[in-house]
Amino acid sequence: MFEYFKGTIAKKTPTFLVLDVNGVGYRFTISFSSYEDFPEEGATATVYAYLQVTDDDMRLFGFATEQERAFFRMLRSVSQVGPATAMSILSGSTVEKLAGVIIRKDESALKCIKGVGTKTAQRIIMELADDIKSFAAIADENMPESVPEVFSDAVAALMSLGYKRAVAQKAVSSAYTALGPDTALEDLVKKGLQNV
Questions:
Q1: Contact yes or no for 85/117 (Cβ under 8 A)
Q2: Cβ atoms of residues 10 and 41 within 8 Å
Q3: Do residues 72 and 95 lie in contact, with contact meaning Cβ atoms separated by under 8 Å?
Q4: Contact 39, 45 (CB under 8 A)
Q5: C or N terminus of the chain, fewer CB within 10 Å?
Q6: What pLDDT is recorded for position 147?
Q7: Which parts of the chain register pLDDT below 50?
Q8: SS3 call for 95
Q9: 97/113 Cα distance (integer angstroms)
């Protein structure tokens, strides 16, 4: 029903965001990853939307990127994974790192995320492991398929310096290709900074 909303961020917290669109405030439940990606209050932003309708409630979920929303929809397709659990999973890690965990069928890593037990982790792996490989937002030219930990850590380091996720991913990807998989985190970050 809704594709996206564009407006001014009136309030931003780690769990929800209020977007003022022509004088109407829309409240979105967001993940911590989106919280980090959205600009500060008062800035203009585009929020990609997902509307959850139940018998007695309507709730908007918001995402900073189309990739995160697509991943949320994939998680929602897993048996007994509701919107709250899907958002908890997205808040526990980046989309890229989660994709790598699922591709590797790393059940223990999934269980480290709050709200994910053994059965939920097993269902996510069983139902998404094959589909996630063809997930275009993950397997694009800016991300290695298995998303090693050093890659994710380097992206996080660049983001902590103020770079947007897409910029950080592209820079680290170029550095990772040049330096190889055995490079140290410090070297990967330094090389990545040369690419932004």
A1: no
A2: yes
A3: no
A4: yes
A5: N
A6: 54
A7: 136-142, 145
A8: helix
A9: 12
Q: What's the rounded Cα separation, in Å, for the pair 66 and 170?
A: 17
Quickly tell me which residue has 């699922």 as its tokens: 102
Quote the DSSP letter at residue 52.
E
Among residues 27, 173, 13, which one has the least CA distance to residue 91? 13
φ, ψ for residue 94 (rounded to 5)? -80, 160
User: Over the Cα atoms of the chain, what is R_g?
Assistant: 17
Q: What are the beta bridge partners of residue 8?
A: 20, 44
pTM exceeding the 0.70 threshold for the entire prediction? no
- Picking from 56, 102, 114, the residue whose alpha carbon sits closest to that of residue 77 is 102
DSSP for 19-50 reads EEETTEEEEEE--HHHHHHS--TTSEEEEEEE
H or E element at residue 53: strand 44-53
